[in-house]
């Protein structure tokens, strides 16, 4: 584990240095080829000492995606990468870096007000609020209502139609598991 951390840290630092160095080298080479004498201007100094735009994107199991955008001084990019181990670098541009973390959990808004129910077209669906409000967060699969009505009590069916409150990952997985047996597969339709 320690070796992986050291490799990740070294790789992150090399990437950050390469991005900044590559940008500056590219600018220098372009200036040399055009025959221009390279003189640092205020704009060039701003690019060298300026900030990277770093986007921290998260995806959650419940289908929610969030982004947080911050500015990080170029001199602190390697430290930022080290501090965010477990995040994937999905894009690196001269002035922007996008990091992604796949959360193995529900998003806070899913925990706060998530309900699993059946949509009007028979799909098992995660809603923000009660199903009657119809604010869909994530759609899973079509349910065979005939199979479900044959195997479940009327109370369980009414509960699903009303919406089953989801507060954490365990409840989310439990509901999906319970109703997964009523999923209409490609051969069932």
Automatic annotation (TrEMBL):
Q: Which InterPro entries match?
A: BofC_C (IPR015050), BofC_C_sf (IPR038117)
> Which residue range or ranges hold the Bypass of forespore C C-terminal domain?
104-180
Q: Name one Pfam family in it.
A: BofC_C
UniProt superkingdom:
Bacteria
Write down what this protein is called: BofC C-terminal domain-containing protein
